[in-house]
C-alpha cells in the first residue's frame, strides 16, 4: 500500500507525533482528526513490521524508527531486550499534544461579550513552521494541512464545545481569538460593529462631526447613544457624501453607517433617534464592503437640492429664465475658497441635469438643482469668484448669495 510505504519512508528520517504524521495525509479519509489518522498509520505499520520480523525479514531498523514514536512497537522491542527512548516530534516538539488547553484561557476573556461569530488566529513558533515545510518539501507532500491551520481549527473546535449558539466565521468574525504559542498568552479582539441607517437633518446648525462657528451640535454627538447601546469604546460615522452644516437634509434622507469600536454586544435591537435636529432611522447591521460601496456611491449619486437665493439687484422673470440654459451643462469647479485643502486648486467636473426656479420677490428666488453627487452647489450658484464656471451668477450677471440650502433627495 502506497500510503504505508510513504509513511514508513518519512518516519525513517523524522520522528513525528500522531498529529504531525496524520496531518501530512490530512486529505485522506473523512471526519478524522489528524492524530487519529496518524495513530492508525502507526498501528498498521506496527502490525506489518512485527509480522515481517516474525517471518524472519530484516526490518529491525524500521522497528527502531517506529518505536521512538509508537509505544506498542517500543514495548515489542523491549520484549526482545531492546530498549528504545521516546523521541520528541521533529516538527512540533510536542506542541500539538494538547493545544486545546489554550481554549481554557480564552473562555474567561469572552465572558460578558454577546457575540455570534468568531475565528481563531495563532502565532506558531517560526522554527515549527520551517521544519514542517522542510518535511513537506522533502517528501513532496500535497495532501497535507498546515500546522497553523490544524491548531486554529482544534482550538476553535474546543471553544465551540463551551460556547453554545456561536459559530466560526473566517470572513467577518465578531471576535478574533488570538493565541500566541510562543509566549503562551491568549487574547481576544472585538471587531467593530457596523450599523447602517438613514438620517434626516432638520437643523441648519448641525455638522457631521466637527464643531465650528455657530454649529451647536454634530451628527456624531447625536449618535453617541448607539455606542452606549452596544457597549462600545468609541464610535465613528461613515456618511455617503456630506451636506454643509447650514444645509438641511430632507426627503428620504442620507445613508450613514455608525461604526462602534470594541462593542460588548453584537446583536439586539437598534433604537431609532429623533430630536428637533436629527432623525436617525436604523436599517440593520452591515459590513465593511457595504461601507466602501456607500462611500463610492456618493460620487455617482444624483442629488436634488433646494436653495433660497438673494440677488444683489432686482431680476425680471425673463432674466431669471436664463437659468434654463444651465440644464444639462458640465460644471468645472476649482476647490472652493471656503474649503482649506493641501492642493488648493484641484479641479472637479460635475453635471447639472435639471434646474427649476420660482421668483419670490424681485431679489429673491427659489432654485431647485438636480445634479451629480459631489457638485459644490453653493459655488455653482454664486460662482465663487470665477472658480466655478458656468454658474448661475455668471448667467444672470449679478452677485448672488445663498440664503438657505436643503438636500431634498439622494437618488
Ligand atoms: Zn508533532
UniProtKB/TrEMBL annotation:
Keyword annotations: Isomerase, RNA-binding, tRNA processing
GO term, biological process aspect, one: tRNA pseudouridine synthesis
Substrates-to-products reaction catalysed: uridine(55) in tRNA = pseudouridine(55) in tRNA; uridine(54) in tRNA = pseudouridine(54) in tRNA
Enzymatic class: isomerase
Presence of keyword Magnesium: no
The protein's Enzyme Commission number: 5.4.99.25
InterPro entries, per the entry: PsdUridine_synth_cat_dom_sf, Pus10, Pus10-like, Pus10-like_C, Pus10_THUMP_arc, THUMP_dom
Any GO molecular function: tRNA binding
Protein's UniProt keywords contain Ubl conjugation: no
Record: active site: 244 (nucleophile)
Binding site for substrate: 305, 376
Domain THUMP as annotated: residue spans: 54-192
Ranges in coiled-coil conformation: none
Function: Responsible for synthesis of pseudouridine from uracil-54 and uracil-55 in the psi GC loop of transfer RNAs.
Family named by the database record: Belongs to the pseudouridine synthase Pus10 family.
Name by which UniProt lists this protein: tRNA pseudouridine synthase Pus10
Lineage, broadest ranks: Archaea, Thermoproteota, Thermoprotei, Thermoproteales, Thermoproteaceae
GN (gene name): pus10
Amino acid at each position: 500500500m502506497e500510503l504505508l510505504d510513504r509513511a514508513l519512508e518519512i518516519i525513517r528520517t523524522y520522528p513525528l507525533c500522531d498529529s504531525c504524521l496524520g496531518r501530512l495525509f490530512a486529505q485522506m479519509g473523512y471526519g478524522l482528526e489528524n492524530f487519529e489518522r496518524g495513530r492508525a498509520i502507526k498501528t498498521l505499520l506496527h502490525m506489518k513490521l512485527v509480522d515481517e520480523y516474525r517471518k524472519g525479514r530484516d526490518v529491525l531498523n524500521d522497528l527502531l524508527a517506529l518505536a521512538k514514536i509508537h509505544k506498542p512497537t517500543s514495548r515489542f522491542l523491549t520484549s526482545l531486550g531492546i530498549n528504545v527512548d521516546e523521541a520528541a516530534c521533529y516538527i512540533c516538539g510536542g506542541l500539538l499534544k494538547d493545544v486545546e488547553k489554550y481554549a481554557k484561557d480564552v473562555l474567561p476573556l469572552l465572558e460578558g461579550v454577546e457575540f455570534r461569530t468568531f475565528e481563531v488566529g495563532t502565532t506558531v513558533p517560526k522554527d515549527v513552521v520551517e521544519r514542517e515545510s522542510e518535511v513537506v518539501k522533502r517528501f513532496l507532500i500535497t495532501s497535507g494541512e498546515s500546522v497553523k491551520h490544524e491548531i486554529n481549527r482544534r482550538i476553535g473546535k474546543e471553544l465551540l464545545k463551551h460556547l453554545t449558539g456561536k459559530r466560526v466565521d473566517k470572513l467577518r468574525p465578531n471576535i478574533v481569538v488570538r493565541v500566541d504559542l510562543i509566549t503562551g498568552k491568549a487574547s481576544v479582539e472585538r471587531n467593530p460593529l457596523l450599523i447602517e441607517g438613514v438620517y434626516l437633518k432638520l437643523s441648519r446648525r448641525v455638522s457631521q462631526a466637527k464643531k465650528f462657528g455657530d454649529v451647536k451640535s454634530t451628527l456624531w454627538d447625536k449618535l453617541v447613544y448607539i455606542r452606549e447601546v452596544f457597549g462600545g469604546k468609541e464610535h465613528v460615522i461613515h456618511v455617503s457624501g456630506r451636506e454643509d452644516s447650514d444645509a438641511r437634509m430632507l426627503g428620504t434622507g442620507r445613508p450613514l453607517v455608525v461604526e462602534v469600536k470594541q462593542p460588548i454586544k453584537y446583536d439586539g435591537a437598534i433604537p431609532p433617534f429623533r430630536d428637533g435636529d436629527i432623525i436617525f432611522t436604523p436599517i440593520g447591521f452591515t459590513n465593511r464592503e457595504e461601507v466602501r460601496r456607500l462611500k463610492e456611491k456618493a460620487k455617482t449619486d444624483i442629488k436634488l437640492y433646494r436653495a433660497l437665493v438673494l440677488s444683489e439687484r432686482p431680476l425680471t422673470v425673463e432674466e431669471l429664465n436664463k437659468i434654463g440654459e444651465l440644464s444639462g451643462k458640465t460644471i468645472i469647479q476649482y476647490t472652493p475658497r471656503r474649503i482649506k485643502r493641501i492642493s488648493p486648486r484641484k479641479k472637479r467636473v460635475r453635471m447639472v441635469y435639471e434646474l427649476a426656479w420660482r421668483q419670490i420677490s424681485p431679489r429673491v428666488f427659489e432654485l431647485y438643482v438636480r445634479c451629480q453627487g459631489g457638485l459644490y452647489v453653493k459655488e455653482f450658484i454664486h460662482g465663487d469668484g470665477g472658480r466655478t464656471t458656468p454658474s448661475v451668477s455668471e448667467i444672470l450677471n449679478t452677485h448672488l448669495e445663498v440664503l438657505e440650502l436643503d438636500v431634498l433627495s439622494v437618488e
